[in-house]
């Protein structure tokens, strides 16, 4: 038998034939990314059901030097969970590790398998009267392992932080096939280097996350949503300061959307609500949570909106008066990426900036793009409260996707040079994967890259963990 056949036979012994997929029809769903930009090849897709099986598979991969691409829900946006075209790697799907292991309402923690779907964790927390605050549009299919591996952000970062801030402990299988059990539910633990923080955001390049202890929070008594309209991003930033001053920690969402974003959603999803009769320059979706009562939340929101109208920061606002109306407003925000995907190709940027620089960044970068690519459409929205913009560029009317995508490098260069110049980051929440590797090399200092390579070399000297990603 060839080496590959020996390796696959060993995998079949460990997992059973049904969980070692090699037929094209079976492997296809695991090999193309969510945005349908790239299809890789794999020796096999492996579907272990236990941590011990993951460890045994990793020992086999180390023995036969087979590269491993971990995969959760495959909703990542930077080609991190897809193998390259060589066909020598295996995709290791964590989807069958999907149990809630424990929930401790007093410690306010939940211990979960890495393959648990995010929404399942939210629902388990809610059933116990708690809140698991991580929330993003892919929550019905992304996994907590993928959220941790990409340090996902989402819409509640302003109040609760990124996935990193929500994680207290991890269980990890090393590239050598050992199991590190760091499932500690401690809020304080200063006992040397923080290995947990190394694996979070490592995009599967250092080891496989198989379990995690995540923080839970009290469920707010009330949550209300409003949509405010204003002429410019500068007005939106002044509104952010005002809301933070008035509402403190009760402000749990602050999402910016440009007029063009809402126009795109209205064109692609005409069934969704249209809150304003007239068009405005920008919109902010606001969410306030109260630990006291609905009346308290409404009072806070109305007082803040009143002050914003008086200061002429906003031109108009609608406050959702029911859960259904509130969901309708959130749907406008969440349908922007879906509307873009339906409308055609676009070039995405997931960037962060010091909040104080955002209005200047948008003005300068919009102008630079318009001058280089007249008529290009800017789909700018995002988590303004976190300084994170999804600053996406769509082709001028009439230009084919193909002609437009030929300019991808030039467009990325214009946007990322501006981001770098303003002291920002070229990846705020989606990670680096295979897609932004060259950009990372361009904007990180040589010393930072050298330190990152030293960590990779120390933990994965054979370079079998998701090779070709990040570095
Ligand atoms: P995958 O896509 O399967 O994998 C992502 C990366 O993690 C890959 O590098 C993979 O190798 C690695 N990985 C996966 N599981 C493990 C594991 N158990 N151990 C080690 N490595 C692993 N992201 C945000 O941050 N904020 C958003 O608001 C947001 N909105 C989105 C909206 C939509 C509609 C979509 C499609 C995506 C969105 N994303 C967002 C991106 C994506 O959903 C997140 O990055 C998510 O965390 C990925 O989880 P996943 O389980 O799908 O991981
Ligand atoms: Zn986002």
Automatic annotation (TrEMBL):
SUPFAM superfamilies: FAD-binding/transporter-associated domain-like, FAD-linked oxidases, C-terminal domain. Keywords: FAD, Flavoprotein. GO terms for biological process: respiratory electron transport chain. One of its GO terms (molecular function) is FAD binding. Its cofactor is FAD. InterPro entries: FAD-bd_oxidored_4_C (IPR004113), FAD-bd_PCMH (IPR016166), FAD-bd_PCMH-like_sf (IPR036318), FAD-bd_PCMH_sub1 (IPR016167), FAD-bd_PCMH_sub2 (IPR016169), FAD-linked_Oxase-like_C (IPR016164), FAD-oxidored/transferase_4 (IPR051264), Oxid_FAD_bind_N (IPR006094). PROSITE patterns: FAD_PCMH. The keyword Flavoprotein applies. Residues 38-219 form the FAD-binding PCMH-type domain. Belongs to the FAD-binding oxidoreductase/transferase type 4 family. This is FAD-binding protein. It comes from Janthinobacterium violaceinigrum.
């Amino acid at each position: 038998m060839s080496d590959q056949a020996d390796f696959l036979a060993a995998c079949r012994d460990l997992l059973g034939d049904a969980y070692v997929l090699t037929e094209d029809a079976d492997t296809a769903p695991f090999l193309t990314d969510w945005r349908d930009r790239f299809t890789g090849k794999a020796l096999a897709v492996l579907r272990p059901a236990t941590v011990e099986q993951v460890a045994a598979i990793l020992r086999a991969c180390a023995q036969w030097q087979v590269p491993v691409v971990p995969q959760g829900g495959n909703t990542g946006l930077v080609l991190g969970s897809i193998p390259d075209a060589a066909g020598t790697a295996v995709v290791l799907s964590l989807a069958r590790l999907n149990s809630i292991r424990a929930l401790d309402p007093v410690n306010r923690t939940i211990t979960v398998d890495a393959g648990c779907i995010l929404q399942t964790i939210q629902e388990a927390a809610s059933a116990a009267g708690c809140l698991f605050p991580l929330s993003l549009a892919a929550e019905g299919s992304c996994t907590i392992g993928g959220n941790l591996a990409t340090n996902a952000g989402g819409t509640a970062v302003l109040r609760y932080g990124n996935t990193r801030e929500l994680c207290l402990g991890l269980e990890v299988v090393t590239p050598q096939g050992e199991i590190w059990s760091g499932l500690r539910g401690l809020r304080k633990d200063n006992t040397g280097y923080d290995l947990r923080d190394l694996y979070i955001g490592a995009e599967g390049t250092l080891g496989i996350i198989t379990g995690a202890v995540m923080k839970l929070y009290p469920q707010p008594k009330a949550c209300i949503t409003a949509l405010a309209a204003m002429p410019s991003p500068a007005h939106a930033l002044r509104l952010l300061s005002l809301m933070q001053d008035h509402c403190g920690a009760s402000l749990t969402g602050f999402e910016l959307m440009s007029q063009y974003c809402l126009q795109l959603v209205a064109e692609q999803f005409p069934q969704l609500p249209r809150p304003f009769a007239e068009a405005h320059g920008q919109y902010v979706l606001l969410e306030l949570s109260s630990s006291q009562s609905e009346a308290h939340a409404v009072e806070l929101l109305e007082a803040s909106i009143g002050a914003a109208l008086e200061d002429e920061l906003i031109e108009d606002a609608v406050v959702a008066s029911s859960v259904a109306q509130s969901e309708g407003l959130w749907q406008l925000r969440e349908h922007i990426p879906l509307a873009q995907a339906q409308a055609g190709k676009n070039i995405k940027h997931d960037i962060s900036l010091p909040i104080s620089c955002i209005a200047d960044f948008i003005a300068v970068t919009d102008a630079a793009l318009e001058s280089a690519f007249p008529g290009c459409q800017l789909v700018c929205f995002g988590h303004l409260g976190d300084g994170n913009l999804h600053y996406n560029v769509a082709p001028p009317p009439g230009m084919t996707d193909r002609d437009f995508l030929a300019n991808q490098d030039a467009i990325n260069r214009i946007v990322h040079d501006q981001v770098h110049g303003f002291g920002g980051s070229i990846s705020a929440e989606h990670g680096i994967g295979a897609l932004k590797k060259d950009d990372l090399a361009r904007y990180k200092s040589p010393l930072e890259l050298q330190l990152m390579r030293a960590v990779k070399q120390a933990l994965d000297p054979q370079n079998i963990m998701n090779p070709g990603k990040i570095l």
